[in-house]
Design a protein that fits this description.
The chain is an alpha/beta fold. It has one domain: Rossmann fold. Helices cover 33% and strands 23% of the residues. The chain has 12 helices and 12 strands. The longest helix has 18 residues, at 189-206. It starts with 5 loop residues before the first strand and ends in a 9-residue tail after the last helix. Adenosine-5'-diphosphate binds at residues 15, 17, 22, 24, 42, 44-50, 60, 63, 279.
Length: 333
Amino acid sequence: MESPLLDIRDLRLEFRSYRGVVKALDGVSLAVDKAEILGLVGESGCGKTITGMSVLGLLPRQQARVTSGEVLFRGDDLLRKSEHEMQRIRGRLISMVFQDPLASLNPVFTVGDQITKVIREHKRVSKKAARDAMCRALSETGLPTHKTLLHSYPHQLSGGMRQRVCMAMAISCDSPLLIADEPTTALDVTIQMQILKLLLRLREELGVAQILVTHNVGVAAQTCDRIAVMYAGQVVEQGPTVAVMKEARHPYTMALYECLPQGKSAQELLTIPGSVPDLIDPPAGCRFHPRCRRVLDVCRDVRPPLVEVARGHRVACHWVAEQSGPVRIPPES
Ligand SMILES: Nc1ncnc2c1ncn2[C@@H]1O[C@H](COP(=O)(O)OP(=O)(O)O)[C@@H](O)[C@H]1O
Ligand SMILES: [Mg+2]
């Protein structure tokens, strides 16, 4: 079997803060195959963004410390790369679109200049070829390529346009892996659909693998091949989209679905009772146990391992394990 394009294994990450050590990622394992879209879902503060940032080596070096794990890209551990090596990987082999587009655009360069600059930093091409590549990327995101936009500075654009400029920059170098962190949150519904279609086209036509970070389970269902659900720095459930959507097993995943809008008015929207725990002193055992409807005694002390409940569908939950008993997955035919 071919090994995955990206293979995050047992990643543990801490932040030093003035309040203490934040145990932000606790044994995260995720894999993304070539031309596959993996959705990363979960409430705010569960570790989706820092998972993406740790792949690209973008966490603040002063505070962040990886205490164990590997981030293998084409079999090579990115955690062992120097900053110089990572600079050559970022943008060319792995691109990321951030939640906050203003923070990732350079305020002193025009849109046209910053995209062509990125292309020419990574590819040895003429100015003309870089401009052509930039115009293609802008058109893909539905932006115009006339002078008014190319000569604009980031602060002169609307939030939605900035987000699309970042997307154009991320796809302009044809990197084989794209990490998109809430790429549609700031956009209205029509443009949101356009960006999601673009992600699908990138996968189908160019084989671009993607991690799509979103707190919107509906967006993940429409776009992703597989979904991983994160809670408080751990992956609690992962598997093929259909399995995770239609046969969700973890009480946290089920609670997330109950909060989907599905024709309810804003006042009726549900939220999961309680909140994501403080990761300086996370709950022992299963980190979800204080909010869980199905909590058992064992959940308070013992961390549940990820157990395969169907082919490729894994769940970390004592209650699920107790219900299903020993699982036998038939061999692949
Ligand atoms: N620089 C930092 N110092 C301390 N804690 C941090 C830092 N960056 C992120 N965190 C913590 O890591 C956790 C995960 O954050 P994040 O990945 O942004 O969540 P998500 O993207 O799922 O909303 C949060 O508890 C957050 O407070
Ligand atoms: Mg985030």
